[in-house]
Design goal:
Blueprint: E1 13-18, E2 29-40, E3 45-55, H1 71-101, E4 117-120, E5 123-126, H2 127-130, E6 131-137, E7 140-145, H3 151-160, E8 167-169, E9 174-177, H4 183-220, H5 226-259
Keywords: Chloroplast, Coiled coil, Plastid, Protein biosynthesis, Transit peptide
Domain Ribosome recycling factor: 99-259
Family: Belongs to the RRF family.
Length: 261
């Protein structure tokens, strides 16, 4: 083969195709093609041939078969992912409600003390677990501990909380008077409520994002098609919208409660 066009100063790699000069026994081998390549540098030229052989009588390599998911499998995957998303969204709603309930609005509500923790025999415990909390009227709370020795600890915990309440300890129970909120304080609380509602919505969106990632993963694994993922994502968006409306509803209710004198 002529190589007159090759210059040793070049550093490129070139390839050409040619028919082989040596034919193997036709009963055993057939030559599909012969690839000849060379590379050169300032000091040498390297010639290399690559030959592809096919042995007759051996099974040919087959293309992979991609098995699409059945409708039952698709529905099962959808149900599992959607169930997980709904459970997490329910917890997000519960978290928003818990935050709302702990906000003082001028009316007595046992849930106002939900986040108060008491040092009880060396360990922090929730106030609700060691005392009964009731509402004698709309402007006061009554805390009756199951163990009277914890009265001092309960009183201290309420004082140290951010509720702004002054406990009255008579040695038997603790009474809490709920003062009326000023107009300025109500506006501040409405902003806090709005922020907590938005945090809840962000949590819902993040849960939706995680579910979409689960669908995309199944698509990459060839278990779901692109159309399957689009349909499932649309259904998931409906679930997301449903929970967004729930948060908006409880937010409006809490906002009205905070702003109503």
């Amino acid at each position: 083969m002529a190589m007159s066009s090759l210059s040793p100063a070049t550093s490129s790699v070139r390839s050409i195709y040619r028919q082989p000069r040596i034919s193997p026994p036709k009963t055993l081998l057939s030559l599909q093609g012969n690839k000849l390549s060379w590379s050169s540098s300032a000091s040498y030229v390297k010639l290399q041939a690559k030959v592809t052989l096919v042995v007759k009588g051996l099974p040919k390599k087959r293309d992979p078969i991609i098995k699409c998911a059945t409708m039952e499998e698709i529905e099962a995957e959808k149900s599992l992912i959607e169930k997980n998303a709904r459970e997490r969204m329910d917890k997000a709603i519960d978290s928003v409600l818990s935050n709302f309930n702990s906000i003082r609005t001028g009316r007595s509500n046992p849930a106002m003390l939900d986040k108060v923790e008491v040092e009880y025999y060396g360990s922090p415990v929730n106030l609700k677990t060691i005392a009964q909390i009731s509402t004698p009227d709309s402007s006061s709370l009554l805390v009756q501990p199951y163990d009277k020795s914890s009265l001092k600890s309960i009183e201290k915990a309420i004082v140290n909380s951010d509720l702004g309440l002054t406990p009255n300890n008579d040695g038997e129970v603790i009474r809490l008077s709920i003062p009326q909120l000023t107009s300025e304080r109500r506006k501040e609380l409405s902003k806090i409520v709005a922020k907590q509602a938005e945090d809840g919505k962000v949590a819902i969106r993040n849960i939706r994002r995680d579910a979409i990632k689960s669908y995309d993963k199944l698509e990459k694994e060839k278990k779901l098609s692109e159309d399957n993922v689009k349909d499932l994502s649309a259904d998931l968006q409906k679930v997301t919208d449903e929970y967004m409306k729930k948060i908006e509803s409880i937010f409006k209710q809490k906002e009205k409660e905070v702003l109503t004198v």
